[in-house]
Amino acid sequence: MPGVLDQLTFLFQTPEPAADHAATDFLTISGARHAIHARRNWRARRYQIYVRADRSIRLTIPRRGSQREGLAFVHGKARWIEHQLRKLDAALVPPKSWGAGTEVLLRGEILPLTVTPRGDTLTVRLGAESFPARPETVNFRPLVESQLRRLANRQLPPRVGELALTMKLQPSRVTIRDQSSRWGSCSPRRAISLNWRLVQTPDFVRDYIIIHELCHLREMNHSPRFWQLVEEFCPAYRNAESWLKMRAARLGL
């Protein structure tokens, strides 16, 4: 006869509001922590997992189950949950084509693209950033993203250097990449890679990701000691993670 742990129901919900009680635990996926809200349902015969619109997880514990076993099951189904999070993001992706007036994130602000004719060219502006475009351009997204990548290459490596000096750590190399599912990474060779989209986030979020990766120079894991180190240098890191969770889709992750 199968045990309670073999009787699991997976459900994917987006409209349900977040739980109003404190998180029981957290599940880390691709560097982001997702709150797990556990509740017992005496009518339930199996564990149930709901992925919410706010990217948190609701765990229903059946009458013969335990919170410990339920949390273990949630952590064991991380790949399934990650797949559901990707489905959630896919439903919220921004338009593929960016025209005049499209709202784009830059340094945490949602700004409209403005396009102004100037002689034989167009001037595209996003906040304080401006660059020329060909007059026949209809979709400005490739041009804008190319400019943001250049901005990232100018701004992110120096910021890594500043924070590394404060933390008394030294990466072997810093590279800026177009990563589709990560904000950053740290290799066993102490090389740090950062997603160029960090220039679209507020400074406190950008710094959290950099600190997160620098902490991997001491702890190449996500153990309690690692999170203690992160909190030492970035006490408000949970706020940064919440910001990222709410805006991942707009940023294309």
What can you see in these coordinates?
- The chain has 253 residues and is an alpha/beta fold.
- It contains 6 helices and 13 strands.
- The chain has helices at 67-76, 78-90, 141-167, 203-215, 224-233, 237-247; strands at 8-12, 25-29, 32-40, 47-51, 57-61, 103-106, 109-112, 114-118, 121-126, 129-133, 173-177, 184-186, 191-195.
- A 5-stranded mixed beta sheet has the order 1-4-5-3-2, with helices on both faces. The chain has a 3-stranded antiparallel beta sheet with strand order 8-9-10, covered by helices on one side.
- Helix 4 (203-215) crosses helix 6 (237-247).
CATH architecture title of the largest domain: 2-Layer Sandwich
Task: List the helices and strands in order.
Answer: EEEEEHHEEEEEHEEEHHH
Helix content: 25-40%
Strand content: 25-35%
Tell me, what is the CATH class of the largest domain?
Answer: Alpha Beta
Multimerization state: single chain
The CA-CA distance between the termini, in Å, is 42 Å
Number of strands: 13
What's the helix count? Answer: 6
Class per helix and strand makeup: alpha/beta
Biggest β-sheet strands, sense, barrel:
5 strands, mixed
Radius of gyration: 21 Å
Number of domain modules = 2
Report the principal-axis shape.
flat
**Spatial strand order of the main sheet:** 1-4-5-3-2
